[in-house]
Design brief:
single chain; alpha+beta; elongated
Amino acid sequence: METPTEETLKEIIGHQFPGGEYIIAHWENFLLTECTGSELLPNGLAHPVALFHVPILGAGTSIGEMFELGHANSPFSIGIESYEWEIHQPLLEEVSYKISGKIEGAERKTEEGRVFDRIQFRFDLALEGSFVASSTIIWHYNRGRSDEH
């Protein structure tokens, strides 16, 4: 895929994902919890690690689409800067979360000779009209070295 211009990059700011709903199934929570080496939480509480994928899928998008929106050169050209979670209510199994998502920021950066696009995604989860959690994801779309541009 061709590297986007800085103008094209700015155009994706504000992009809204379709949104939707997601239910964390008991079996899914069980497997995620096992992967962390933890014990299953009591009373249908879901492990917070679900915030890695639930917001993306529930917002009606995919990692593949997120790669495309940022014009990733390849799946290997993505670097993770951060995943930040705000949890205001416990995550629960077997309830339907309404999820929305958008691109909050996109900028071209050069650091130590490395050129990359820094794209910030935000996903919000709500249950029965109450805010539950948010996930802010920042990825780097590597573009090469500054001497190549």
